[in-house]
Structure formats: C-alpha cells, structure tokens
Amino acid sequence: xxxxxxxxxxxxxxxxxxxxxxxxxxxxxxxxxxxxxxxxxxxxxxxxxxxxxxxxxxxxxxxxxxxxxxxxxxxxxxxxxxxxxxxxxxxxxxxxxxxxxxxxxxxxxxxxxxxxxxxxxxxxxxxxxxxxxxxxxxxxxxxxxxxxxxxxxxxxxxxxxxxxxxxxxxxxxxxxxxxxxxxxxxxxxxxxxxxxxxxxxxxxxxxxxxxxxxxxxxxxxxxxxxxxxxxxxxxxxxxxxxxxxxxxxxxxxxxxxxxxxxxxxxxxxxxxxxxxxxxxxxxxxxxxxxxxxxxxxxxxxxxxxxxxxxxx
Length: 312
Known about the structure:
The protein is of the alpha+beta class. The protein has a domain at 28-89 and 134-268 and 291-306. Helices cover 26% and strands 26% of the residues. The protein has helices spanning 2-24, 98-103, 108-133, 175-186, 210-218, 233-236, and strands at residues 43-46, 51-57, 79-86, 88-97, 150-152, 158-160, 200-205, 240-243, 253-257, 263-275, 284-296, 303-306. A hairpin with an 8-residue loop joins strand 10 and strand 11 (284-296).
C-alpha cells in the first residue's frame, strides 16, 4: 500500500505541474504586449546569490589629437556608486481537496491550477513593470536619483533624462514631445560627459496611449498636424511600440535605446511543491509555487521618460 500511495502522490504532482506549466509557460508571441521575459525591454541576468552587487564605471573621454612623437595622454576612469540590489521572494499556495481532485467534476481543479499559474505570471509582470511605474519617484539608480531625473555624472556635470516639455509646457505624448525625446536620447551624455548618439529603439506606453503611439510612429503622414508632412519616424529609426496593462499611469511614457540598463535579475525561476493530503488534518493537497527575482536599473543611460503632465 505504501508503494501505491507514493505512486498516487507522484501522479497527482505530475498532473498538477502539467496544468500549471502549460499555463505559466504559454507564450503568445505577441510583439506588442510586453512581459518581464521580453529581452529587449528587460535585460535578463541570472545570479546565484541573494543580492546583486555592482558599481558604475564612468568610461573614458574622447580621444584627443596628438602629435607624431607626443606622449599618449592617459585617462583615468572612475568607478563609484556601488549599488546592492536584494532579490525579492514571491510565493503563494492553493489547497485542493482530495475529493475535488479525485472526482474532478467539470475539470474544476484543473481550472483552479490554471488560474494559479496565470496569477504567477501576472505577479511577475506586475512587479516588474512597477520599476517604470515608480520611475520618477522611488525607482532609484546607483546614484540615488530617480531613474527618470537629473543625474550627477561621475566625471562632473549633470544629465537629465526627462523628456523636455512642448511649447505649451506639457510632456504629454505627441509628435512634438516624441521629437524632444528622440533629441534628448541622441544628445545624452554618458558618465564621462561624452555624447554617444543613442538611437531610439522602444517606445513604451500604457494601453491608453497605444493607439496614439502607433499613429505617431507608423502613419505615413504626421498624425497630429493638419498638413501633409511626411512622418519621418515611420522609417528613420524603426521604433517598436510596446505596452503593458501593468503600467499604472495613463499618461507616462518612455523611450529607450538598445543600451538601456533596465534589468530583470532572476535568482530562481518558478518552482512548485506539493504536500500530500495524508499529511493534512482536512484531507487537502497543498500546492505551492514561488520565484525569486527583481527588476532594477543601475544607470540612467539609454532611456528617457515623461510623466505626460506638466513639465515632468
């Protein structure tokens, strides 16, 4: 009987895991709706420790002009702003009664487990996109400044990565403010004060701005003007519009280059475990899942953002 019980337990876990991961690993391959698994929007890093530690390097300056036998000038890079990013632990559990599992009327337990798996995916996305939700306040880079703010450069000076307002003092998404964002990105200085000419790659918007974002970037003509001016953004950069329902502001938007530093650190992917009903006092299986990860950005470079209201 012990052998049969252990086999039954193994069968239960296998069936629960099958339903769970069918839902959790489901990939819609939607190029528009982004998740934390999107490697272009969230750089993916796997670690084996509880926290991720790094420092910011300033890099070097421009190459100066030198004479034929002149000593080669030396540039001393600066390394500072140590940042320690602890990994968050997320977990949840669901109880499935033995009778419900055994009978499985109308596949009820399977629906419960599928919903459980879906909520695990939603949790990852919700917490991941909170980095952008708090980009102007509590999402801090290594210099202790909000991700979208005015940053002090390691080699001196400052650099803002907030989209400049339009002629009316607004940063709401429009053809004018998108142009301002592109100019700001292309003229952004790195920690050494060097302009690297970043190319816009991703326009990230909430669902409320998705239609406008598509019109601004993909219409043949400019979307918000009365003349027949060509929409240069359609072909100049090949910007991709991405969105997420977990962006909580209906007005904030972001423009990112490929070298942005928004990163998803994964300490442990989703793991599941099952407690057999025979170890409970109420004849229930306890099915649980957890994962360990965090989203952060050590540096401002390669990204600009706008709250979409006022001059911020």
